[in-house]
Amino acid sequence: MINHDLKKKLYKEMLYIRMIEERIAEIYHPADEMKCPTHLYTGQEAVAVGICNALIEGDVVCPYHRSHGWYMAKGGDLKAMMAELFGKEAGCSKGWGGSMHLVDVGSGVMGSSSILGGTIPHAAGCALAFQIKEVENVAIASCGDAAIEEGVFHESMNWASLKKLPVVFVCENNLYSTSSPLGVRQPPVEIYKRTVSYGIPGVRVDGNDVLKVYEAALEAVSLARAGDGPTLIEAMTYRWREHVGPNYDYSLGYRSKQELEEWIEKCPIKRVSDVVSEREEELLIEGFSKEIDEAIDFARQSPFPKPS
Ligand SMILES: Cc1ncc(C[n+]2csc(CCOP(=O)(O)OP(=O)(O)O)c2C)c(N)n1
Ligand SMILES: [Mg+2]
Q: Hey, what domains does the chain have and what are their CATH numbers?
């Protein structure tokens, strides 16, 4: 049962992530201080927020390259993330990783990766460690729809099913791999149905509905925690901005402005915005804006890592 307080928490976290991403988009080119390739999460916020809110202390996430939302939703530190994007020593990966390689082991962010599908076996490995240690924790792997085409996805599903590992695979299906639509890359079988051959549950949810994502996550996580093995959650969503970078890219022709506008209508944040009053929203925006300013100032003032 999702009460008012939880709904508000989910709303706030999505708004926070949206504001961070949109601020990065504003400063990325004009300031030219972030040298790392940056994949923005705008439009997909409900997935990381819905999943991470179903987790408990000690659970871990292994996020994919569109990682900022996961890092923040799991409790990562904004200043450390911003410093990482600026390539600074105070960054969460000491300035050497950039946007796609965010780590905060203390918060359970076990390291995102630029290698498609790369963090799927990492999560299975974390889950194996939990099983061996006999702790009731769960590991989450996030990936995009393109990672389903990687061998390592299938190897991990096979092993996780065989060993009944406490892992939940989350596929954020935003319909594209860079500029290639799903239909030119995969046979017409829904991603969540691929689990049939591994004998594990697969579910599809509206990935722009944070309440639905949360409920699906709760169920998958409780199965995993009870020793009943993995689940694949396919969350249908859409990235608003270009694959990598801050621009809108419908002018490239691989997707239409109309398609983007239809998904903007389905904004995950707008869908639960009735949980706050206008005044509350203003205050939240004011507070988050200040925090983001402070994180950017902190990142700018931090030194670069020493070559040694
Ligand atoms: C193993 C591997 N192959 C190819 C790439 C190049 N690459 C980077 S992002 C990307 C598209 C990823 O699409 P998807 O997994 O659907 O995630 P999205 O970016 O759509 O969120 C590709 C092909 C890579 N990083 N790793
Ligand atoms: Mg994709």
A: 4-238+251-300 (3.40.50.970)
